[in-house]
Amino acid sequence: MTTARAQQKLEPVPRTGEMERDFEFTSADFARIRELIHRRAGISLSDHKRDMAYSRLARRLRARGLDSFRHYLDLLESEQDPAEWEAFTNSLTTNLTAFFRESHHFPILAELVKRRQPPVSVWCSAASTGEEPYSIAMTLIESLGDSAARQASVLATDLDTQVLAKGEAGVYSLDQVKQLSPERLKRFFLKGTGSHAGYVKVRPEVRAMIRFEQLNLTDADYRLTSPFDAIFCRNVMIYFDKPTQSQVLSRFEPLVKPGGLLFAGHSENFTYVTQAFRLRGQTVYELTRDAGANARGSAKTAGAAGRREAVI
């Protein structure tokens, strides 16, 4: 009896999550998923994302009628089906957003665009379900006025095509817009009635300012020729390793107009990743060459003032 009890204590206890799994999910499977999503989208999945990867991709196994992760990953690589790669990538991306999230950025954007020459353009590079690009568009209208805002545009891109479709539709529940003021709700949204009660829809004139497009920030082949007055790249770099972050930021540099700004997420710091951008304020960056020009201009002005004072 004593020996049996001792042996029982030495037996490994399965983790709760694994006991509930429908499919075998080995360390090799997870390592392969990590390699594939990094190669495909630049995303670095940490060890603690293992359960998340299982739960999200298990849906793809069920949809395809497969019995193991190994078979699914073999199919993914052998068939090279763009639709399945898209589903794989969409499954592993996280989309957490809200209207006017990290609100301190929008007054800075408002002051910036007031000083810019039209047409004003902003790139929202991680648009998710649309709350961020619509917040940008509302800020442009409030800052420039309705007529001037017609010369402004927002490019909204994301890797995940499913969330882009939701953003382009511009329909949100009342709970999703509850933090907006009554004035903004009235000015920028239409209230649903009948079967659409409990929802609002972004007004057509606001939606017309935004172009939604699928884009992979780590894709070396993406082409954006027109520079922007501001780029929002918030809460996406945290999913990339440092080399990938550096590559993404190096491609941003020529896409920012002189005097333009780059907005980052609250937990992101680009200071140790790139020399092209310099921190200007709380998670707001400017081109380093602009900062140098501004400093030289200030010094020149100060020097001229000193000379005038000496003459007097």
From TrEMBL:
<dbReference type="InterPro" id="IPR036804">
    <property type="entry name" value="CheR_N_sf"/>
</dbReference>
<feature type="binding site">
    <location>
        <position position="95"/>
    </location>
    <ligand>
        <name>S-adenosyl-L-methionine</name>
    </ligand>
</feature>
<feature type="binding site">
    <location>
        <position position="97"/>
    </location>
    <ligand>
        <name>S-adenosyl-L-methionine</name>
    </ligand>
</feature>
<feature type="binding site">
    <location>
        <begin position="216"/>
        <end position="217"/>
    </location>
    <ligand>
        <name>S-adenosyl-L-methionine</name>
    </ligand>
</feature>
<dbReference type="InterPro" id="IPR029063">
    <property type="entry name" value="SAM-dependent_MTases_sf"/>
</dbReference>
<feature type="binding site">
    <location>
        <position position="101"/>
    </location>
    <ligand>
        <name>S-adenosyl-L-methionine</name>
    </ligand>
</feature>
<keyword id="KW-0949">S-adenosyl-L-methionine</keyword>
<dbReference type="InterPro" id="IPR022642">
    <property type="entry name" value="CheR_C"/>
</dbReference>
<dbReference type="Pfam" id="PF03705">
    <property type="entry name" value="CheR_N"/>
</dbReference>
<feature type="binding site">
    <location>
        <begin position="234"/>
        <end position="235"/>
    </location>
    <ligand>
        <name>S-adenosyl-L-methionine</name>
    </ligand>
</feature>
<comment type="function">
    <text>Methylation of the membrane-bound methyl-accepting chemotaxis proteins (MCP) to form gamma-glutamyl methyl ester residues in MCP.</text>
</comment>
<dbReference type="InterPro" id="IPR050903">
    <property type="entry name" value="Bact_Chemotaxis_MeTrfase"/>
</dbReference>
<dbReference type="Pfam" id="PF01739">
    <property type="entry name" value="CheR"/>
</dbReference>
<dbReference type="InterPro" id="IPR000780">
    <property type="entry name" value="CheR_MeTrfase"/>
</dbReference>
<feature type="domain" description="CheR-type methyltransferase">
    <location>
        <begin position="18"/>
        <end position="290"/>
    </location>
</feature>
<protein>
    <recommendedName>
        <fullName>Chemotaxis protein methyltransferase</fullName>
        <ecNumber>2.1.1.80</ecNumber>
    </recommendedName>
</protein>
<dbReference type="InterPro" id="IPR022641">
    <property type="entry name" value="CheR_N"/>
</dbReference>
<dbReference type="InterPro" id="IPR026024">
    <property type="entry name" value="Chemotaxis_MeTrfase_CheR"/>
</dbReference>
<dbReference type="GO" id="GO:0032259">
    <property type="term" value="P:methylation"/>
</dbReference>
<keyword id="KW-0808">Transferase</keyword>
<dbReference type="GO" id="GO:0008983">
    <property type="term" value="F:protein-glutamate O-methyltransferase activity"/>
</dbReference>
<keyword id="KW-0489">Methyltransferase</keyword>
<feature type="binding site">
    <location>
        <position position="158"/>
    </location>
    <ligand>
        <name>S-adenosyl-L-methionine</name>
    </ligand>
</feature>
<feature type="binding site">
    <location>
        <position position="132"/>
    </location>
    <ligand>
        <name>S-adenosyl-L-methionine</name>
    </ligand>
</feature>
